[in-house]
């Protein structure tokens, strides 16, 4: 079994380079299925979710070439096999993008229901509503999402009003609509930076998508996309995680390769807590010396405070002075990590979607379990701020979404290392 061992108490000093955005990469890579020709994709993060999605494309017959550490070339011109392997698809949430992409290109898709972090119910009814509005017949049976356009025709443009703001449904409908006949309009669309990134990728290959980043997206279907080169945006949540780490551990760190605008909501909260943040062109300089002050935080779709930063900000609030109220506005059950924090001496009460956190003078190191990706990252932050030794297992969750997190933190002075414990097995990847 692989674990992370952290001896807390070191302030962080130096520079951290942010990688490409996970949630953009896991949509842009399947989007290559729509393209006739080779897509060279740059700034690809080296994380296990990306490895998995590339492996699925290979299984489908795509030609996938690694150009260098952060660049891959994906050519799906000669895809033959359309059966997505269950064992791979169930391990990753983003496998649902294969439905939109395959349906758009072939008018037919059968994809195993996706996996992903356990955050409460994760229905896909809005994705299905979108495909149906474009003329597909969709049903879920034997663990598969089965979608087809009757008569083997192309999808046709449709109008979709999303009942709730959904990142996945917005991107999936965008993928399906790209090669459909006519215009598709998505209303109440999600506005996250990765939505804009997917639209920019598709447009750079010849698609006609307007309005991404607003709540109405119009997609004029085209008959063909051609190959090209595209660079993925920096990861908003990875950057936010390191910002939270500096807030909790103290010190002075330059966080490089970011789009500061994407981080406004996180910057504002940390500044309110007493962190000094200086914005530069593509970097943020964070400094924290004095005590942290309590704040209230409510997560919501972009440009609100991201749900994917909720556990990390909770870790910081555990060591802030006073009582903070944290409200989860997106997922039903994103507080499964709280019991682990309590082992470290955190004072947290949860009632439904609200957590009340009373800051303590210090946390104490403990053996804890990373129950999902962002909760795992939050546990690292708690460990950095704690007195004594923290040992985290279940780190495969963390490695799904953070490139070389141990090395990046150790390079700025954190006492963190990876250990391998013989004789104990990691649980199989839940994805
Ligand atoms: C994406 O999940 C991200 N995953 C999640 O990040 C992130 O938490 C989430 O967006 C919100 O920002 C990927 O991009 C791979 P949603 P997604 O559809 O698309 C409800 C991480 O840590 N809903 O925006 O699956 C749903 O239950 C991961 O990187 C429906 O009811 O989320 C939720 O309450 C975790 N029906 C809300 O909408 C639907 O058909 C938002 O979900 C779709 C969603």
* Rg over CA atoms: 21 Å
Structural class: alpha+beta
Bound molecules: ligand EPZ
User: Which CATH class of the largest domain applies here?
Assistant: Alpha Beta
State the helical fraction: 25-40%
What does this structure look like?
- The chain starts with a strand and ends in an 11-residue tail after the last strand.
- A 4-stranded mixed β-sheet has the order 21-22-1-23. Strands 2-14-16-15 form a 4-stranded mixed β-sheet, with helices on one face. It has a 4-stranded mixed β-sheet with strand order 4-5-3-13.
- The model has no long low-confidence stretch (mean pLDDT 95).
- It is of the alpha+beta class and 431 residues long.
- It has helices at residues 22-31, 48-59, 86-89, 97-106, 125-133, 167-178, 193-204, 236-249, 264-272, 310-317, 338-343, 373-385, 396-399, 405-410; strands spanning 2-7, 12-17, 35-42, 63-68, 71-75, 108-112, 137-141, 144-148, 159-161, 183-187, 208-210, 216-220, 225-231, 251-256, 276-279, 283-288, 297-298, 323-327, 347-351, 354-358, 367-369, 389-393, 415-420.
- Helices cover 30% and strands 27% of the residues.
- Bound molecules: ligand EPZ.
- Ligand EPZ binds next to helix 1, helix 5, helix 6 and helix 12.
């Amino acid at each position: 079994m692989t674990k992370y061992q952290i001896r807390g108490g070191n302030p962080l000093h130096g520079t951290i380079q942010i990688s490409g955005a996970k949630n953009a990469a896991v949509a842009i890579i399947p989007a290559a299925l729509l393209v006739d020709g080779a897509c060279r994709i740059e700034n690809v993060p080296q994380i296990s979710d990306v490895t998995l999605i590339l492996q699925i494309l290979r299984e489908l017959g795509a030609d996938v070439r690694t150009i260098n550490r952060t660049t891959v070339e994906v050519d799906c011109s000669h895809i033959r096999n359309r059966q997505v392997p269950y064992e791979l698809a169930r391990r990753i949430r983003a496998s649902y993008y294969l439905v939109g992409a395959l349906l758009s290109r072939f008018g037919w898709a059968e994809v195993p229901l996706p996996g992903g972090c356990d955050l409460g119910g994760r229905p896909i009814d809005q994705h299905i509503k979108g495909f149906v509005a474009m003329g597909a017949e969709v049903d879920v049976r034997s663990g598969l999402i089965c979608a087809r356009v009757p008569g083997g025709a192309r999808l046709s443009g449709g109008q979709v009003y999303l009942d709730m703001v959904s990142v996945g449904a917005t991107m999936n409908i965008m993928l399906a609509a790209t090669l459909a006949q006519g215009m598709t309009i998505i209303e109440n669309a999600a506005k996250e930076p990765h939505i804009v990134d997917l639209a920019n990728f598709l447009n750079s290959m010849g698609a006609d998508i307007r309005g991404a980043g607003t709540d109405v997206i119009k997609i004029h279907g085209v008959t063909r996309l051609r190959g090209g080169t595209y660079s993925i945006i920096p990861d908003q949540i990875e950057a936010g995680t390191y910002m939270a780490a500096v807030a909790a551990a103290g010190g002075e760190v330059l966080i490089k390769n970011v789009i500061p605008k994407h981080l406004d909501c996180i910057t504002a909260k940390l500044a309110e807590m007493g962190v000094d943040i200086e914005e530069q062109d593509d970097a943020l300089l964070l400094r924290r010396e004095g005590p942290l002050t309590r704040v209230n935080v409510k997560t919501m779709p972009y440009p609100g405070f991201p749900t994917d930063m909720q556990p990390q900000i909770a870790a910081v609030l555990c060591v802030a002075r006073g009582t903070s109220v944290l409200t989860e506005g997106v997922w039903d059950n994103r507080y499964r990590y709280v019991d682990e924090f309590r082992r470290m001496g955190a004072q947290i009460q949860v009632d439904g979607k609200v957590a009340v956190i009373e800051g303590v003078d210090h946390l104490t190191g403990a053996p804890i379990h990373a129950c999902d990706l962002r909760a795992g990252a939050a546990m690292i932050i708690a460990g950095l701020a704690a007195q004594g030794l923290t040992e985290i297992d279940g780190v495969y969750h963390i490695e799904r979404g953070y490139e070389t997190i141990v090395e990046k933190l150790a390079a700025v002075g954190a006492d963190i290392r990876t250990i391998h414990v013989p004789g104990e097995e990691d649980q199989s990847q839940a994805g």
